[in-house]
Amino acid sequence: MKEAVDDSERSTGRSRPYKSALRQKQAEATRQLILQALAEQLAKGGLQEFSIADAAQRAGVAPRTIYRYFPNRDALLDAVGEWVDQQLGDLLYPTTPIEVAELAEQAFPRFEQQAMVVQALLVSQLGQNVRSRLRLKRRQSIQNALSSLPGEAGSVEAVHAVIGHLVTAETWKHLRDEFGVGGEAAGEAIGWAIRILIEALERQR
């Protein structure tokens, strides 16, 4: 009976559901492995040194396996851009001045946990493209969140720019590389500094 069932499956071209689910799971695991390998390569050498062969070697797969998942280099880079965004998770889009300070406290420890991914964002052309899209939306949310603060036009705009810079990955990286400050401590310090600036502006009401 079992052979008859198997023959029926082969004759109809259908596979067992559990086999199909297993293949999908294995395929997704391989895809994630390739994307992680690419992010590691980007973090180490940037886009200029990137090659399919090197990414395949780092992932432990054959180059043809990469092309099976990503037909060309652009498709691969687009996919790793989405993967990088997923690794950073859902960071806060602030709606109030205090939430801007909380964004630093949330983001910097996460940058530390995903240091390799953030490095890839900072050093590669791919990362710059990904960050430009992400930063535009978050920068606008920060500007909107700070818009309720008082102050003279010139000075308040400058303070807003300073606060916006404080919550960037570049600030996290500088504190980490130049001063050895960990992500959690850096986030707390930047959050404290932003609150001081907010309080100073509030006193101008």
Largest sheet: none
Oligomer: single chain
State the helical fraction. over 70%
Number of helices: 11
Name the beta content range: under 5%
How many individual domains? 2
Series of H and E elements: HHHHHHHHHHH
The chain-level structural class is mainly alpha
Number of strands: 0
Radius of gyration: 23 Å
Flag low-confidence runs. 1-10
Question: Could you report the average pLDDT, rounded to the nearest whole number?
Answer: 81
Q: How many angstroms does the end-to-end distance come to?
A: 84 Å
Give the overall shape, derived from the CA principal axes. elongated
How does the SSE layout of this entry go?
Blueprint: H1 2-12, H2 17-45, H3 52-59, H4 63-69, H5 73-88, H6 97-113, H7 115-123, H8 125-146, H9 153-166, H10 169-179, H11 183-202
Helix pairs in contact: 2-3, 2-5, 2-7, 6-7, 6-11, 7-8, 9-11
Tell me what the structure shows.
- With 205 residues, this protein is mainly alpha-helical.
- The chain folds into 2 domains: 16-82, Tetracycline Repressor, domain 2; 89-202.
- The chain has 11 helices and no strands.
- α6 packs antiparallel against α11 (183-202).
- The N and C termini lie far apart (84 Å).
- Mean pLDDT is 81; it is low at 1-10.
Summarize it.
By secondary structure, the chain is mainly alpha-helical. The protein folds into two domains: 16-82, Tetracycline Repressor, domain 2 (Orthogonal Bundle); 89-202.
List keywords for this structure.
205 residues; mainly alpha; Tetracycline Repressor, domain 2; 2 domains; 11 helices; disordered N terminus
